[in-house]
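Example 5.3 — TIGR02001 family outer membrane protein
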Amino acid sequence: MEQMRENNMKNMLRGLLAASILAGAAVATPAFAQDEGEITVSANVAMVTDYRFRGVSYSGGDFAIQGGVDIGHSSGFYIGTWASSLEPTSTGYGNTEVDLYGGYSGAISDTLSFDVGLLYYLYPSASGDTDYFEPYASLTAAVGPAEVTAGVAYAWEQDSTLNQDNLYLYADVGFGIPNTPVSVSGHLGYTDGVWSPETYSIFGTNDQTAFDWSIGASMAVMGPLEVGVSYVGVEAPSNENIAFGPVMNDTVIATLSASF
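Solution (predicted C-alpha cells):
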C-alpha cells in the first residue's frame, strides 16, 4: 500500500510538471514573468562555481548550471521545477538533478508569513533507486530591516534513503544595506539522519548529525542580472575518507544569476 501511495505521488508530481510546462508555454511573452489572470509565471537561471546542498558539493567543487520555472496562483498555491548539473563521481546521482515541488504560502499577519509544501528530488541518469520525497514548512518574519526564516524539512523512510529518515532544520536571515544595491544573508542548518555528511564517509561514525552554514552578499548589476558571493562551511569528515568524493571543505562560491 505504501509503495502504491508513493507511485501515485510520483505520477501526480510528474503531471504537475507537465502542466507547468504547458502553462508556461501558453502565457510566454517577451517578458517571461507576468500575470495571466490570477496566474504568475517566473523563471530563473544561474551559474555557480560549486553546487552545495546543505554543505555537501554535488558538483565536485566545479561549476554547475542551474535553472527553474515557477507557477503561482493568487490564492497562494504554487508548483515549480528546478534543475542543476552534477558531477557524477561526487554523489553517485548521475549528471543531473531535477526537483519538482508544490505547496501553499500565505500571510499570517503584516510581518509574518508561512510556506508549506512537498518536494520530490529526481536523478534521471542515476543507476538504482535515488529519487525521494521531502515535505517542508517554514515561517518568515520581518524583523526591522531584516527578513528571518525558520524552516524544517523531513524525508521519511524510503527505499532511496536506505530505509532511514532525515530531519533538516534551518534558519536564514537577509537584509538590504540601505542606499546600496547590496543584500547580505546568513544561513545555519542542522541535519539529523541519513543525509548527514557522515553518510558519504567510508569510515563514518554512527553520529548522523551535522551543521552547515553560510554567509554571503549579492548585488543587482544590470537588468535581471545579479552577482553574488558566499562562504560555505559544513561539519564533515576529511576528504580522504569520502566514499564518492564529494567536496566538503569550507569554500567560497561565486554566482551569476538572472530572474525573469
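Remark. The mean pLDDT is 83.
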